[in-house]
Amino acid sequence: MIGALALVMVAFYGALLSISVFLKPLLEEFGCTRAMVSGAMSTATGIAGLFSIVTGRLTDKYGARLLIGLGAFLGGLGYLLMSQVSSLWQLYLYFGVIVGMSMTSCWVPINATVCQRFVEKRVLALGITTSGVNIGQMLLPPLVAYFITGHGWRPGYFILAIVVWIAVIPAMMLLGGKPPQSTGELDSRKSKTDKLEDKVAVQPREGGITEAAKTVPFWMLTVTSFVTAAGFYFIAVHIVAHATDVGIAATLAALVMTFMGGGNIIGKLLVQPIATRIGSRFTILLLFALQALCLFLLMGTTSLLMFLILGAAFGFGSGGTTPIRTSMIVEFFGSRSVGTMMGVIEIAWAIGTILGPILAGYVFDLTRSYDKAFLAGGFLMATGVVATFFLKAPRQSRTSYSQPAKC
Fold this sequence. Notes:
Blueprint: H1 2-17, H2 19-30, H3 34-50, H4 52-62, H5 65-82, H6 88-104, H7 107-117, H8 122-151, H9 153-167, H10 169-174, E1 200-202, H11 209-212, H12 216-245, H13 250-253, H14 255-278, H15 280-298, H16 304-333, H17 338-367, H18 371-388, E2 398-400
Helix pairs in contact: 1-8, 1-9, 2-3, 2-8, 2-12, 3-6, 3-17, 4-7, 4-17, 5-6, 5-9, 7-8, 7-17, 8-9, 8-14, 8-16, 12-16, 12-17, 12-18, 14-15, 14-16, 15-16, 15-18, 17-18
């Protein structure tokens, strides 16, 4: 099941993030600014995030199978229509709206399903599943870039439609109905959300979104979601175009996405043993600091090797934060309404995906350089560092191992 869900993410996110290699062909097609084309990506990711609260609630009630199937149908349809796009408004409709609606049925339903079905080593299970995002990022953009070099960009979107439709088949066969709900029992191993909490376990509240929204940690998870999204999609949308601006060939520039995806995967797979040793909060703090450093160093970079190194390092930081933040939702608040809570947090993610690419494109259009955008992005990551200091289990939900949990 983990493999099938990861494959869905390979197709959905690999196709979505391939916009980085379509950016310049679309600019030539419509004769518009980078901010205007980037706006289609922001529309897609924004819609995906804003409607995630709906799909999260539906996942809690009915399971993820039907939602994933519907998302695949819409995604394939959107990419098929993109192969025939002829105006800017169609770009926003086909890619921004239709593909955006398909993405709504991917991230929250899949992660909520994993959280509900796995207790022990939940972070690792989430890391493996969400690595599909980065495998797709590594594979599809370079392959599409190679394909459109010889055949043009329109057939490239037709291929993406087929990929999305085929990849969802195993998940539709293996997923059953609504996942079993957690009983609220603690993991057999201690949950180390803070290095200092060696003798304290996090007892999930098993409450709803209303109770969770009254706590500081919930809103700090929301802040870190916004920061991660804004930084990731800024890089994902603009890094290939930036690399070609400084003289790197398009096919080589696309490799930055591959290295970034590889770093992301490694971060997701290594984050559990790292967090076990030094604590989850300190791990996230270091990962945000790493991303900030990468953005600062991208200013003035012209070497392909440096692009690849910084892309991999940024991917490591971005990928490592994801499974920890997602797992914290269940550790702090239980799994009864995990889909709904993920959906609310995804709204912040959506805002980040909207603002990140558009503002970066706007800064470039004003200055003809990405340097100031990288500078602003680095300071944004610094706010994520500050937010991690408040990522502690809500006081009311802590219980000693020596005391039985109240029913």
